[in-house]
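## retry 2 of 3
previous attempt timed out at serialization; input unchanged, resubmitting
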Amino acid sequence: MINRHIKIQMNKTAEILCVGTELLLGNTINTNAAYLGRKLSSIGIFVYYSTVIGDNVERLKSALSLALSRSDIVITTGGLGPTYDDLTKETVAEYFGLKMEMHQHSLERIRSYFNKLQRHITPNNEKQAMMPTGAVVFDNDYGTAPALAVANADKSKMVILLPGPPREMQPMYEEKVKPFLLHQFTANTLVSKMLNIFGMGESAVESKLIEIMRNSTNPTVAPYAKFGEVELRITASGKNESECMKLIEPTIEKIYSILGDVIYGIDAISLQNKLVEVLHKQNLTIATAESCTGGYISKRITDISGSSDVFVGGVTTYSNASKVAILNVSEKTLATYGAVSGQTACEMAKNVAKLFHSDIGVSSTGIAGPTGGSAEKPVGLVYIGYYYNGNNYAIKLNIGRGSSDDRESIRYIAASYALNEVLKQFDLDK
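## retry succeeded, writing output
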């Protein structure tokens, strides 16, 4: 049960401090900052700074002091473990002038955890139950280190300390810390909707929407570049969610009227998520025939839970012989136009649908490089084939950038175009 006895009096500005030398060295990817940034903004807490600090007390003290000088809430991740260099709690307690004391409830939970594993608890594990005086403690149902919240004397500043491992941190934030934070504030609600864009770069999106971006204050409109895509976040502030949506919806409609079908979804997560969702709604199945993408298209579709209802199978026919033997691509087509051609892509898409008895067939064939290109067919030349209900065609792409390490990006972006080409055939819900 959450102890809500800290009632803070503050604005809603926050800073994230991720503690761990392994983050600085690049041994561990820092996903915590991105996760917390998204989650905090969704409840109206504005993150203005994010910092990574190694396991060093003096540097942590310095970072904590700077963070609290410019933000009301500081959220830390990491440094709550049992080892000698896990000193985040102790550093925060010292900063606020608080003593450390044993939190009996947490100690009993840790002992119970070790008993279930039939392991002996050691003194350094008991250290994890030591808490600053007056802290709000959140039970950790996913590990041994509890999370906690500590405020200064006048309740104008607060530090929330979370475990570092994402498998512990993320559910603890969602289940324990988020309700605690929402209880602290009675100010306006903040609601964001994300428009998912493929087929137009960030600079082009900004150029078309510059007046909306400059003139919109509530809601605000901001673009974010992803690999091969753009996300457009529309954020409104209001008394409640309904009021926020009334502000957001006209802006979304205006953006749709300007950008058109390059928007493939709202809060869609990814092209493959949206495709699986649409195929479910349409009660359609799909099969893939891949050459240059090497299974990327089918991999991304099958990354999505529930894809087994819509994805019936796929083949990677890398050689001409396999295209003939497995997909029944005409030898005459290959001899006349080559493997990298619209004609071959069309036959691959049509014949893979027949092979797997699927409604839709999609294919890829191209030159991913860095070798194998020519003046006539350069690296980055890709054809995406599509087949559905007698409609069979191919699109031509030139997605090479002239870099010797472009192979992976060419394959990934080609797969994105294949997913998007299928999506474009349907009237997507706004």
